[in-house]
């Protein structure tokens, strides 16, 4: 064993001693920079309209998860079909990371208006959660446009508006059970338990043999 | 390839980076004498400790380096790739690989860099590698299929498996590596002085 060997072995040994004093490794949670957040806020790409939301729910799109961030009391009264309740205070709790930060599906946050959901979006985005969206207008808009849509003004609206109205009328039947002819009482949407979703990141492939 | 600046570097550059790293790797293999079969096989016959030295140094340096760089926030170790563990096929495959190493005097990587220096035995070795590859492909369905999936342990590493702290495992493994190197080095010196004559050593070209 020559001198170089001894130096290298000494350095390696020193490094391993240093390693003992460090805690176990955890995946990085990047803090998103202010300018990035500002850019995304201005981009408005985070919004999902109630029409799009209704479309996804009616199609039973499994890649969308709707998260109600209102308090449990309000959630118990009414919520969107299959929505999960995560109160605003607990959105960053570690046990929910797997649910809210799963790359495989889109999480749509909503509250009564857009504002509270926007705040939740900002907090989650600043911790680098991905695929988070906000329901534009929240439940207020949901009620006005999907549950009780008004026909467009015949004087000022074109074909597009009527098409949208027809879609909303269809959605109204789907969500409230009110048939176009005659009125039946609306059935209460079913509550669902929070699914046990593990934190499943995309697996990295590659390497060599 | 690796998580090298994934936000700034186009994934298409991965191949280029791999190419450059490959050239560097081949150069170091050749420079440290790893294209010499007698030096490589020496670890099995007990007259050369280079292989054990290089592999343990590489493993331990990478282990400590990655761990500390992750702790300092330079690299996300969770974006590096390592395969799932199937212990039975790994054991059998390792035995076959070791046997090939003793008989042929190369491992797959060193055979390629030895071939690039024009060694004829390396070209024969590569031909053998391809015979092995195609032999595996054509006998896969009835010979290897069941074996390949046996002994699955999932994606696991030693500290998780043993349930100890990662830093402690790094320390223990380093002590083990250093001890094995020191002991092996002593043994090689004893072997060289007591069992090999000078002309043997000259003949081996060490």
Protein described:
The mean pLDDT of chain A is 81. Chain A contains 8 helices and 5 strands. The longest helix of chain A is centred in the first third of the chain and has 18 residues. The two termini of chain A are 32 Å apart. The radius of gyration of chain A is 24 Å and the shape is elongated. Chain A is an alpha/beta fold and 209 residues long. Chain A has a 5-stranded parallel sheet with strand order 1-5-4-2-3. Helices cover 42% and strands 9% of the residues of chain A. Chain A folds into 2 domains: 112 residues, Rhodanese-like domain (Oxidized Rhodanese, domain 1, 3-Layer(aba) Sandwich); 37 residues. By secondary structure, chain B is mainly α. Chain B has a domain of 31 residues. Chain B contains 9 helices and 2 strands. Chain B has a two-stranded antiparallel sheet with strand order 1-2. The chains are: A alpha/beta (209), B mainly alpha (206). Chains A and B meet through helix 1 of A and helix 3 and helix 8 of B.
Structural class of chain A: alpha/beta
Number of domains of chain A: 2
Oligomer category = heterodimer
- Helix percentage range of chain A: 40-55%
Q: Which chain pair shows the most residues in contact?
A: A-B, 25 and 36 residues
Number of strands of chain B: 2
Strand content of chain A: 5-15%
Quick overview:
The complex is a heterodimer of chains A (209) and B (206). With 209 residues, chain A is of the alpha/beta class. Chain A is built from eight helices and five strands, in the order ααβαβαβαβαβαα.
Descriptive key words:
A: 209 residues; alpha/beta; Oxidized Rhodanese, domain 1; five-stranded parallel beta sheet; 8 helices; 5 strands; B: 206 residues; mainly alpha; 2 strands; globular
């Amino acid at each position: 064993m020559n001198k170089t060997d001894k130096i290298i072995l000494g350095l390696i040994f020193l490094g391993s001693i240093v390693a003992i004093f460090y805690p176990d490794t955890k995946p990085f949670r990047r803090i998103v920079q202010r300018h990035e957040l500002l850019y995304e806020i201005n981009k408005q790409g985070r919004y999902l309209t109630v029409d799009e939301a209704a479309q996804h729910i009616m199609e039973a799109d499994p890649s969308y998860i709707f998260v109600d961030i209102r308090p449990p009391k309000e959630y118990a009264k009414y919520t969107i079909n299959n929505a999960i309740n995560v109160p605003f205070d607990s959105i960053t709790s570690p046990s929910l990371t797997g649910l809210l930060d799963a790359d495989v599906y889109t999480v749509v946050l909503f509250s009564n208006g857009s504002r509270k959901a926007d705040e939740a979006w900002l907090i989650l985005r600043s911790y680098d959660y991905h695929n988070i969206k906000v329901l534009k207008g929240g439940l207020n808009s949901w009620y006005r446009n999907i549950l009780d849509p008004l026909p467009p003004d015949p004087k000022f609206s074109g074909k597009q508006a009527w098409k949208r109205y027809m879609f909303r009328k269809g959605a109204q039947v789907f969500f409230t059970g009110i048939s176009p002819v005659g009125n039946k009482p609306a059935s209460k949407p079913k509550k669902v338990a929070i699914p046990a979703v593990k934190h499943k990141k995309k697996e990295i492939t590659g390497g060599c043999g | 390839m690796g998580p090298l600046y994934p936000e700034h570097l186009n994934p298409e550059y991965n191949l280029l980076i791999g190419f450059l790293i490959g050239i560097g790797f081949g150069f170091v293999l050749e420079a440290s004498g790893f294209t010499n079969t007698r030096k490589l096989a020496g670890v099995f016959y007990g007259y050369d400790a280079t292989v054990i030295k290089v592999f343990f140094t590489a493993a331990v340096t990478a282990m400590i380096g990655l761990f500390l760089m992750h702790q300092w926030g330079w690299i996300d170790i969770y974006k590096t790739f390592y395969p799932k563990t199937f212990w039975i096929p790994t054991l059998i495959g390792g035995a076959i690989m070791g046997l090939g190493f003793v008989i042929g005097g190369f491992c797959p990587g060193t055979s390629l860099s030895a071939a690039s220096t024009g060694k004829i035995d390396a070209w024969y070795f590569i031909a053998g590698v391809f015979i092995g590859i195609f032999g595996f492909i054509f006998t896969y369905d009835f010979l290897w299929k069941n074996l390949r999936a046996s002994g699955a342990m999932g994606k696991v590493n030693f500290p998780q498996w043993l349930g100890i702290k990662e830093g402690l495992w790094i320390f223990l493994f380093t002590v083990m590596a250093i001890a094995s190197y020191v002991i092996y080095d002593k043994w090689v010196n004893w072997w060289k002085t007591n069992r090999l004559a000078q002309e043997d050593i000259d003949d081996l070209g060490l």
